[in-house]
Amino acid sequence: MLARKSIIPEEYVLARIAAENLRKPRIRDRPRKARFIAKNGACNLAHKNIREQGRFLQDIFTTLVDLKWRHTLVIFTMSFLCSWLLFAMMWWLVAFAHGDMDPSTENPSNSTKWTPCVTCVRSFTSAFLFSIEVQVTIGFGGRMMTEECPLAITVLILQNIVGLIINAVMLGCIFMKTAQAHRRAETLIFSRQAVIAIRNGKLCFMFRVGDLRKSMIISASVRIQVVRKTTTPEGEVIPIHQVDIPVDNPIESNNIFLVAPLIICHVIDKQSPLYDISASDLALQDLELIVILEGVVETTGITTQARTSYVAEEILWGHRFVPIVTEEEGVYAVDYSKFGNTVKVAAPRCSARELDEKPSILIQTLQKSELSHQNSLRKRNSMRRNNSIRRSNSIRRTNSSLIVPKVQFITPEGSQSASET
């Protein structure tokens, strides 16, 4: 406002604004690493400079299934339309070569009887309609074949064979697209965040997985991989180095019974890539943990696979998942509104290696958590006592306010007499 009114020159205002901007420290966030696997399971990978494009045409059926729906529907429509037009042209040429297009044959004399190859085909439009009737086996009764032309019979057989092939390929492609395995994976959910906490005296990496459908996944198994950028002792840089980490499963077959949401646990031991990582180092780590769940769909028998990943920002240290399975009237109920909820628990901030070298850290942490738990119980009890005392005082005040006060009566002689009602 002052600069517009020419009270302060514009040059001074601009210089002052620039000086203030220079004084303010500029904090730039650390650039986020690109995920290898998205949260919905899609692979974040782009294929470029592929020279051998002809390999996709050699496996045409898989190429059609992998296409997007709009491209598949366009190919579906154009394949039938082009085949109808192609054979319509052939029927028109057969009729033209036989002379069925001659106007004199439309109303022949009584002496000579003209027999066309296909009745009522005297233009390209009628030939196109007859081509549709032959390929989709629709007969309206107006146009039909005769035994006059062997060439027409050959075209009829050829069109039937080509039509069956197109129907088999296109309908099979549509069926495979609607019954793809990743469609079933849409109802397999993972927790948005993973946690690291103490379980059975060990530091563990945990996440939750669940199935929204009642139809189960048979022989379901869970695999965890750590993807990170590494450099070999020879100086070779591996941008995507995959390392399998074991899953703590007491079942020998390594299969899970996914009838209800489960918490998958990985014990951070000496073989784990997370063995040297502490709570302070976790935010600085450039790693990604990929979770893969595989199994067979009970209703269709198709093998399905669900994927997700967790980066360092999505791992909560010192948290635990809240229980969501309860028993209500003889039925186990699952509350999916609390599927990803966590609660903060006591956990050492050091790495698993330091915890193995100094077991006293775990004992001190547990003792501190026990003391904090007792203090919280004392505070809760004191708050309850204070609330009860306040309630009793408020009740007494209300009762005292309901008592009728004493009333004094003044006699004519000037003496006072008090009576209580």
UniProtKB/TrEMBL annotation:
One Pfam entry name: IRK_C
The UniProt record lists the keyword Phosphoprotein: yes
TM ranges: 73-94, 151-175
Family matches, as PANTHER family: ATP-SENSITIVE INWARD RECTIFIER POTASSIUM CHANNEL 8, INWARD RECTIFIER POTASSIUM CHANNEL
Inward rectifier potassium channel C-terminal domain location: 188-358
Coiled-coil intervals, chain numbering: none
Keyword Transmembrane helix assigned: yes
Organism: Elachura formosa
Domain Potassium channel inwardly rectifying transmembrane: 37-180
Family from the record: Belongs to the inward rectifier-type potassium channel (TC 1.A.2.1) family.
Membrane topology label: Multi-pass membrane protein
Main location: membrane
Gene label: Kcnj8
Record-linked SUPFAM superfamilies: E set domains (SSF81296), Voltage-gated potassium channels (SSF81324)
Reaction catalysed by this enzyme: K(+)(in) = K(+)(out)
Composition bias, Low complexity: 384-395
InterPro entries associated with the record: Ig_E-set, IRK_C, K_chnl_inward-rec_Kir, K_chnl_inward-rec_Kir6.1, K_chnl_inward-rec_Kir_cyto, Kir_TM
Keywords: Ion channel, Ion transport, Membrane, Phosphoprotein, Potassium, Potassium transport, Transmembrane, Transmembrane helix, Transport, Voltage-gated channel
Gene Ontology cellular-component annotations: monoatomic ion channel complex; plasma membrane
Protein's recorded name: KCNJ8 protein
UniProt-annotated stretches for the region Disordered: 372-395
Subcellular location as annotated: Membrane
Single GO MF annotation: ATP-activated inward rectifier potassium channel activity
Positions marked as site (Role in the control of polyamine-mediated channel gating and in the blocking by intracellular magnesium): N167
GO terms classed as biological process: potassium ion import across plasma membrane; regulation of monoatomic ion transmembrane transport
